Amino acid sequence: MIIPKTKEEIELMRESALLVSKTLGMIASELKPGVTTLQLDKLAEAFIRDHHAVPGFLGLYGCPSTLLTSVNEQVVHGLPTNRPIEEGDVISVDCGVLKNEFYGDHAYTFSVGEIPKETAQLLEVTKKSLYIGIAEFRAGNRVEDVGNAIQKYTESFGYGVVRELVGHGLGRKMHEDPEMPNYGKRGRGKLFVEGMVVAIEPMINLGTKNVKTLKDGWTIVTADKKPSAHFEHNVALVDGKPELLSTFGYIYEALGIQSDEENSFRKQVLSL
User: Which phi and psi angles does 114 have, rounded to 5°?
Assistant: First the structure.
């Protein structure tokens, strides 16, 4: 059952989402060769608690960490380790918080130094597909309209769209209805309703769409060991249109990147 949010609840969820955004911005300034993902995890937990919230992933379904850090061929749900980050790595950092009784949850795939051109294109295309999908999250459309738009764009580059993992509704629970696949047929799935909030998160592989789970029971990797990319935003349906609750702006500020990619999905540009 889809649970629409009031305008007041959406503002509370914006606070939760923006704390995730700020956490990822802090991670962006710390992520460099030689640092371990376990170190980043500890920094993220302290940062979230210092901002009067609690890590949303830690303990959820038995998750042992604040961040899920998926390196190179790891798609999602990678557990932080003592492996030092290396030049040429790509790392999806997924983070959640619980604040004001509502969850925020989004992700960004970082490149560490110089990476292969084909991997850089994968990241660029996957991130663009996120906004292509968000544009379909509007009154009158259905769940698979979003997935179809993401699938059509990313498959045009020959990439594999993961089927086993999907986006989701968001609210007082981390995972609410509806599931938001990154594939599908137009006109199919649940109808979008005013006030709903979702996490849209394309997970796209350079090669095959097939994945497998490692022995730790968490980490999901590509079957052909080629890189994967993952980008995620939290979006509310407000006045029939998609409105971003999260932002990559804090990441871009840390990395010195200029971007207007989010402007179309905001009622106002955030002052960061």
Answer: -80, 130
